[in-house]
Write a structure and sequence with these properties.
The protein is an alpha/beta fold. The chain contains ten helices and nine strands. The strands form two sheets. It has a six-stranded parallel beta sheet, sandwiched between helices. It has a three-stranded antiparallel beta sheet with strand order 7-8-9, with helices on one face. Helix 7 packs across helix 8 and helix 9 runs antiparallel to helix 10. The longest helix has 23 residues. Bound molecules: adenosine monophosphate.
Length: 274
């Protein structure tokens, strides 16, 4: 019987994976849920071995309190990964990963500095840095990422699809029955907050179908619903915008687009797109 291999040291990682050429890699920060499970199951279908990392990457947090409060649930995570029959779990320490003390070599273009990049200074530089380090360590054939973090997916594709032979797969957002996107941060919400998040999702799904019927009215419809949500649910909206999927610009006429939102419920920051 093949057991899941738990790896904490880079030297052990190298030994464990050296004979495998078709590794599917699923990077996570733990606090695993059905969204992660969906990525892992996709990887298991496409790859000969699946490697999941659990690493709460300090460099991608622009706010120390957020880093400190980020849900950490290692015991439960390992149970889930065993149940899914994952081949390798990599749980490095910060020291293992950042032993060279090098700063991120990645710089966003001005056109990238929208949505989360505008509000979380240094966040994506930290994300690109850690993914780059993981790609170098693992040389995965595939990386599996969720559409929930669309801008992350977009930037990782932009920066790494040409640089490496690793192929980047995107996976649909998994939601609960009230349409709330599953997220580790949902562990920080109480039941009422989660219900609120559900109403907000449902309104944004409705907003999208209205905009689909009349794209010229997008800005007006978004303004209206923004006011509505703030009054009704007592949330703080960081951004609520329609952007095209080609370059994340604001021109959505004749282009595929999504509605992007970042908001705070009870000091917990959630993002989603529709
Ligand atoms: P995280 O642990 O939050 O950094 O997420 C790890 C990966 O899981 C990222 O590629 C996320 O986009 C993806 N992910 C997070 N939530 C969901 C979800 N609800 N559905 C699908 N993928 C998700």
């Amino acid at each position: 019987l093949l057991q899941m291999k738990l790896i904490r040291q880079i030297t052990d990682l190298n030994k464990a994976i050296k004979n495998f050429r078709k590794i599917g890699f699923v990077p996570t920060m733990g606090g695993l849920h059905k969204g992660h499970e969906s990525l892992i199951n996709t990887s298991k279908k496409k790859s000969s071995k699946t490697l999941v990392s659990i690493f709460v990457n300090p460099k991608q947090f622009n706010n120390f309190k957020d880093y400190k409060n980020y849900p950490r649930k290692l015991d439960n995570d390992l149970k889930i990964l065993k149940k899914l029959k994952v081949d390798f779990v990599f749980i490095p320490t910060i020291k293992q990963i950042y032993n060279d003390n090098k700063l991120s070599e990645f710089k966003l273009l001005k056109s990238h500095k929208v949505l989360c990049a505008k509000y979380r200074k240094g966040h994506f530089e930290g994300v690109l840095d850690i993914i780059n380090r993981f790609i170098i360590l693992i040389s995965p054939k595939y990386i599996f990422l969720g559409e929930k973090d669309f801008q992350q997916l977009y930037l990782i594709k932009k920066f790494f699809e040409k640089k490496y032979s690793t192929k980047i797969f995107s996976c649909k957002t998994i939601r609960n029955r009230n349409k709330v996107a599953l997220s580790s941060r949902n562990f920080l919400l109480n039941r009422d907050d989660l219900k609120k998040a559900g109403f907000i999702s449902q309104q944004l799904i409705e907003l999208k179908s209205q905009i689909n019927k009349n794209k010229d009215k997008a800005n007006y419809l978004i303004k209206k619903i923004k006011r509505n949500l703030i009054n009704k649910y007592d949330i703080k909206i960081e951004y609520l915008e329609a952007r095209n999927l080609t370059n994340l610009g604001t021109n959505i006429i004749k282009k595929k687009y999504k509605i992007f939102i970042a908001f705070y419920i009870n000091k917990v920051r959630l993002i989603d797109n529709f």
